[in-house]
C-alpha cells in the first residue's frame, strides 16, 4: 500500500491524511478479491521494519492507526468470512497493536472465504533472520538435522508456514521495487506495477492487475 504520503502532499494535506484514506481503500481491495472469488490469500504491507526510520510523529500515528483500523474493521471482515492473520516481528511493535492483531486472529480463525495477512512490522530479511534463529535453536536442541532442511521445511520457520507462494505481487505508486516484502515467498511472483497512488486505487485497478497477471506465461524456470 504505497503512495499515501505523496497523495496527501499533492493536495497540501498532512501525510497522515493519506494513511487515513488508505483504510477504506484496503477494505475495497478485500471486497474486490472476494468478488474475484479465486483469490484465497491477500497480503497487505502495512508497516515495514524500515518504517521506524520515519519521523517519530508519523510512526506514532501509524501505530495508533493500525490499532484502530484493526479494532474498527475486524467485525466487518469477520462478517465477510475473512480470516485475519499477522505476519511480522514482535520486538518494538506497540503492545496495543499486537493485542488487536491477536484478537482479530482469534475472532476470525475459522473463516474460510479468504485469508488477509496483515504485514505489520514486517520485513523479508527480518523474517529470514528470525527463521534462521529458530532453526539454529531447533538444531541445537536436536529437533532438526542439517540434511532435513529443504525448501519445504524452511517454510515451516517463516512467520506463516501455511502461506502459499505469492502469485501476483502488486505495487502501486509508480515505484518498481519490492522494498523487502515477502522475499522468500515471491521468488516466482509475477510483478505488476501501477502508477496510481494507493489512496486513489480502486477495485478496477485490482481487476486490471489480475487481467495483466492472467496473460503472463509462468514457467517457473522450466519450459512449456
Ligand atoms: C504507504 O504510503 C504507507 C506506509 C508505508 C505505512 P507511504 O507513507 O509510503 O507514502 P509515500 O510513499 O511517502 O507517498
Ligand atoms: Mg512509500
Brief digest:
The protein is α/β, with parallel strands linked by helices and 224 residues long. The chain has helices at 4-10, 15-36, 56-79, 95-108, 124-140, 151-155, 203-214, and strands spanning 41-48, 82-87, 114-122, 168-171, 190-193. A 3-stranded parallel sheet has the order 1-3-2, with helices on both faces.
**Number of E strands:** 5
Shape: globular
Q: What structural category characterises the helix and strand content?
A: alpha/beta
Mean residue pLDDT: 98
What is the count of DSSP helices, taking H or I runs of 4+ residues? 7
Blueprint (SSEs and pairs):
Elements: H1 4-10, H2 15-36, E1 41-48, H3 56-79, E2 82-87, H4 95-108, E3 114-122, H5 124-140, H6 151-155, E4 168-171, E5 190-193, H7 203-214
Parallel strand pairs: 1-3, 2-3, 4-5
Helix pairs in contact: 1-2, 2-3, 2-7, 3-4
This protein binds 3-methylbut-3-enyl trihydrogen diphosphate (IPE) and magnesium ion.
Features:
45% helix; three-stranded parallel sheet; binds magnesium ion; 5 strands; two-stranded parallel ribbon; single chain; binds 3-methylbut-3-enyl trihydrogen diphosphate; 224 residues; alpha/beta; 14% strand
What does this structure look like?
45% of the residues lie in helices and 14% in strands. The chain has helices at residues 4-10, 15-36, 56-79, 95-108, 124-140, 151-155, 203-214; strands at residues 41-48, 82-87, 114-122, 168-171, 190-193. The strands form two sheets. A three-stranded parallel beta sheet has the order 1-3-2, with helices on both faces. Strand 2 (82-87), helix 4 and strand 3 (114-122) form a beta-alpha-beta unit. Helix 2 (15-36) packs parallel to helix 3. It is globular. 3-methylbut-3-enyl trihydrogen diphosphate binds at residues 1-6, 47, 51, 62, 173.
Amino acid at each position: 500500500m504505497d503512495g499515501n504520503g505523496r497523495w496527501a502532499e499533492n493536495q497540501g494535506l498532512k501525510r497522515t491524511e493519506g494513511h487515513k484514506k488508505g483504510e477504506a481503500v484496503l477494505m475495497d481491495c478485500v471486497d474486490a478479491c472476494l468478488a474475484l472469488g479465486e483469490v484465497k490469500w491477500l497480503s497487505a504491507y502495512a508497516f515495514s521494519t524500515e518504517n521506524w526510520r520515519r519521523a517519530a510523529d508519523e510512526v506514532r500515528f501509524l501505530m495508533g492507526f493500525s490499532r484502530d483500523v484493526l479494532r474498527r474493521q475486524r467485525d466487518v471482515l469477520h462478517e465477510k468470512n475473512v480470516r485475519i492473520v499477522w505476519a511480522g516481528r514482535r520486538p518494538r511493535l506497540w503492545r496495543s497493536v499486537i493485542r488487536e492483531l491477536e484478537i482479530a486472529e482469534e475472532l476470525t480463525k475459522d473463516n474460510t472465504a479468504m485469508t488477509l495477512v496483515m504485514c505489520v512490522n514486517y520485513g523479508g530479511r527480518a523474517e529470514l533472520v528470525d527463521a534462521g534463529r529458530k532453526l539454529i535453536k531447533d538444531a541445537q536442541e536436536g529437533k532438526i538435522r542439517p540434511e532435513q532442511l529443504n525448501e519445504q521445511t524452511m517454510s515451516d520457520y517463516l512467520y506463516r508456514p501455511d502461506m502459499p507462494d505469492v502469485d501476483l505481487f502488486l505495487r502501486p505508486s509508480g515505484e518498481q521495487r519490492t522494498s523487502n516484502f515477502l522475499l522468500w515467498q515471491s521468488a516466482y511472483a509475477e510483478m505488476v506495477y501501477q502508477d496510481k497512488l494507493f489512496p486513489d486505487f480502486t477495485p478496477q485497478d485490482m481487476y486490471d492487475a489480475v487481467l495483466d497477471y492472467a496473460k503472463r506465461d509462468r514457467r517457473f524456470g522450466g519450459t512449456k
